[in-house]
C-alpha cells in the first residue's frame, strides 16, 4: 500500500466545476479569480481540499474533458499565472488542490493529434491508436475514419472527437496493436509524466485521474494498467513524493496496487452507489423502501481487497450525475450527509450540494453535457442578480440557473441554523475532531437495513457507532450506552438497553 501524504488522512474535498462556480469578470463563465474569492467560504464550510474539473485549453466539446493543450489553461478561466495564484492562496489557508488529469484521450484539436494524422511518419505517429488500414475498424471500439491522408482508423474514447492516446495493448492480437513496452506507448507515458511534472512544479498538490483504469487496452484484469501506474508511482516517489493521487477507477484493489492513494466510487458498474441516492426508491428516501444490502456487500468486497484501509471515496455527487435534490428532499439529504461524512475514505462534496441545489430540468445540452447539463448550473450565492454568480446578462450565463423563486442560496442557508448547510458544516467539524470518523478509521457493519448501523474504529482503538435511519418509522438498536456526539433529525433516546431512534434521524455515538 502506497504511503499517502499526511494531509490526505483527514481531507474533505469540495468539487468545483470551474465554469459554474464564480464569475469574476462578468462574461457569464466562472474563472480562477472567482474561485480565489470564495476560498474562505470553502474553508468556512469545513472542506480542506479542492478537486477542480479540467481547466486546460479545450474546444469544450466535452466540458474540458477534451484537452487541446495540457500545459495551458483555458483562457476563459484565466492564465497559468492565475492558476498558480490559486494554488498559493489555497496553501495560505492550509488547503490543497487536485487538478483533474485526463490521460486517456485528447481533443482532435491537440497538436499531437494533428501531427499524428499526417501520412509521413513522425514523433507523434504512434501517440494515438491507429489501425493499419482505413478499411479496418478496431473491433470493440469506436473510431475516426477518412479524416486525413493517413491510412488507418483511429480509436476513440467516449465521444467521436476524443481520440484515444496509445498506452499499448496488454495482449496485442492485431498487427497494428502495440504492446505497452513499444516505443509509441512509452513515449505517450513519458509525455503524460511531463504534464504532471509541469503542474506539480507550479504548485498543484496532485491529481484526480479521469478513468484511470482504462488506459491499456485489451487489459486482462487490469494487469497492464496497474503496471503502467506503478511506473508513474515510481516517478512520483522520486520527484514528487508528496503528490496526492486519487483515481476514478471503481476497483480499489487494482488502483491501490497501481500506487494511487484513494479510489473513487463510480456511479455506474457494480458498486450499487445509486441504490443509495439515485434510483426509483433510494435508500435515503423517507419512504423506507430502498435497499442498502447490495451496496454494503460490494463495498465490503472492495474494502477487504484493499486491506481494510479507508481508501474508497464516496461523493455526494459530481458533474456526471443528477443532483441529490432530484431524488431527496432537504431533510433526507441531511441524513445522506450524515452517512457520507461518517464513512471511511475522503468525502467529496459537489459544489452546491451543501445547500441542496436542484437539478435544472429541461435544459438544452451544453458542451457535451446532455442529460448531465441540469446538474452543472451556476452556483447560487445570494438573492442578487444571477444569484450572485455573475454580473453578466442572464442570457450570457454558461448554463441557465434554477428559475424557482425559492431556490436555495448560500446566504439564506448560512443565516438559517436549521439548514442543510449548517448540518453539513457541523458533520464536517465533528469528523475533524473525531479520529474514528476520519478517512483511515476502520468500519464494521452491524445492521444493513432500516436502520443502517456501523462501527468506526480509529488506529488507537477508540470507536464510534453510527445509526442511520432514513425511514419514517422508529427503530431500536441494542447496544451499550455511549456518549451521543451528534443527532441529525428528529431525535433519539437510550432506554432499556437500546437506542430508540426516531424516523428520519442519524445518531453518532462515542463508545467508551
What do you see in this structure?
There is one protein chain. With 512 residues, this protein is α/β, with parallel strands linked by helices. It folds into 3 domains: 6-103 and 186-431, Alpha-Beta Barrel (TIM Barrel), CATH 3.20.20; 105-164, Alpha-Beta Complex (Oligo-1,6-glucosidase, domain 2), CATH 3.90.400.10; 443-511, Golgi alpha-mannosidase II (Immunoglobulin-like, Sandwich). Helices cover 24% and strands 18% of the residues. It is built from 12 helices and 20 strands. It has helices at residues 32-37, 39-45, 80-92, 111-116, 183-202, 223-239, 252-257, 274-277, 293-305, 330-340, 410-415, 420-433, and strands at 13-16, 49-52, 56-57, 69-73, 96-101, 142-144, 154-156, 206-209, 244-248, 262-264, 312-313, 348-350, 442-448, 452-457, 463-469, 475-478, 483-489, 492-495, 498-501, 505-511. Strands 11-10-9-8-5-2-1-12 form an 8-stranded parallel beta sheet. A 5-stranded antiparallel beta sheet has the order 13-14-15-20-17. It has a 3-stranded antiparallel beta sheet with strand order 16-19-18, with no helix packed on it. Strand 9, helix 7 (252-257) and strand 10 (262-264) form a beta-alpha-beta unit. Helix 10 runs parallel beside helix 12 (420-433). The longest helix has 20 residues, at 183-202. The radius of gyration is 23 Å and the shape is globular. The mean pLDDT is 96.
Amino acid at each position: 500500500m502506497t504511503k499517502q501524504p499526511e494531509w490526505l488522512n483527514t481531507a474533505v474535498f469540495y468539487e468545483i466545476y470551474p465554469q459554474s462556480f464564480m464569475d469574476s469578470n462578468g462574461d457569464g463563465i466562472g474563472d480562477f479569480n472567482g474561485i480565489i474569492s470564495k476560498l474562505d467560504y470553502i474553508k468556512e464550510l469545513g472542506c480542506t481540499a479542492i478537486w477542480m474539473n479540467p481547466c486546460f485549453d479545450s474546444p469544450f466539446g466535452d466540458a474540458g474533458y477534451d484537452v487541446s493543450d495540457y500545459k495551458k489553461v483555458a483562457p476563459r478561466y484565466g492564465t497559468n499565472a492565475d492558476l498558480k495564484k490559486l494554488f498559493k492562496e489555497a496553501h495560505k489557508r492550509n488547503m490543497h488542490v487536485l487538478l483533474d488529469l485526463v490521460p486517456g484521450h485528447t481533443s482532435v484539436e491537440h497538436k499531437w493529434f494533428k501531427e499524428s494524422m499526417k501520412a509521413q511518419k513522425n514523433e507523434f505517429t504512434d501517440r494515438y491508436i491507429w489501425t493499419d488500414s482505413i478499411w479496418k475498424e478496431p473491433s470493440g471500439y469506436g473510431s475516426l475514419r477518412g479524416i486525413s491522408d493517413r491510412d488507418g482508423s483511429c480509436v476513440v474514447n467516449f465521444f467521436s472527437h476524443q481520440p484515444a492516446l496509445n498506452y499499448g495493448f496488454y495482449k496485442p492480437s492485431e498487427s497494428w496493436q502495440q504492446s505497452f513496452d513499444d516505443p509509441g506507448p512509452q513515449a505517450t507515458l513519458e509525455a503524460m509524466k511531463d504534464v504532471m511534472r509541469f503542474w506539480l512544479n507550479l504548485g498543484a498538490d496532485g491529481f484526480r485521474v479521469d478513468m484511470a483504469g482504462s488506459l491499456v487496452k485489451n487489459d486482462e484484469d487490469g494487469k497492464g494498467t496497474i503496471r503502467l501506474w506503478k511506473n508513474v508511482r515510481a516517478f512520483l516517489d522520486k520527484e514528487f513524493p508528496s503528490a496526492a493521487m486519487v483515481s476514478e477507477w471503481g476497483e480499489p484493489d487494482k488502483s491501490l496496487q497501481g500506487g494511487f492513494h484513494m479510489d473513487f466510487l463510480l456511479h455506474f458498474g457494480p458498486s450499487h452507489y445509486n441504490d443509495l441516492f439515485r434510483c426509483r426508491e433510494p435508500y435515503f428516501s423517507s419512504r423506507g423502501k430502498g435497499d442498502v444490502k447490495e451496496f454494503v456487500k460490494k463495498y465490503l468486497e472492495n474494502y477487504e481487497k484493499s486491506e481494510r484501509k479507508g481508501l474508497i471515496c464516496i461523493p455526494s455527487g459530481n458533474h456526471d450525475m443528477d443532483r441529490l435534490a432530484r431524488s431527496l428532499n432537504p431533510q433526507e439529504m441531511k441524513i445522506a450527509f450524515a452517512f457520507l461524512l461518517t464513512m471511511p475514505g475522503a468525502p467529496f462534496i459537489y459544489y452546491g450540494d451543501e445547500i441542496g441545489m436542484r437539478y435544472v430540468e429541461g435544459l438544452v445540452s451544453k458542451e457535451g453535457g446532455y442529460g448531465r447539463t441540469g446538474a452543472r448550473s451556476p452556483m447560487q450565492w445570494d438573492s442578487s442578480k444571477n444569484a450572485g454568480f455573475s454580473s453578466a446578462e442572464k442570457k450570457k450565463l454558461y448554463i441557465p440557473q434554477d428559475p424557482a423563486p425559492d431556490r436555495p442560496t448560500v446566504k439564506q442557508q448560512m443565516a438559517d441554523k436549521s439548514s442543510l448547510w449548517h448540518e453539513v458544516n457541523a458533520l464536517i467539524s465533528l469528523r475533524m475532531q473525531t479520529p474514528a470518523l476520519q478517512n483511515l478509521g476502520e468500519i464494521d457493519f452491524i445492521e444493513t437495513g432500516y436502520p443502517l448501523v456501523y462501527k468506526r474504529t480509529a488506529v488507537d482503538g477508540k470507536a464510534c457507532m453510527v445509526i442511520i435511519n432514513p425511514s419514517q418509522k422508529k427503530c431500536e438498536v441494542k447496544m451499550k450506552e455511549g456518549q451521543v456526539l451528534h443527532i441529525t433529525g428528529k431525535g433519539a433516546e437510550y432506554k432499556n438497553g437500546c437506542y430508540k431512534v426516531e424516523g428520519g434521524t442519524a445518531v453518532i455515538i462515542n463508545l467508551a
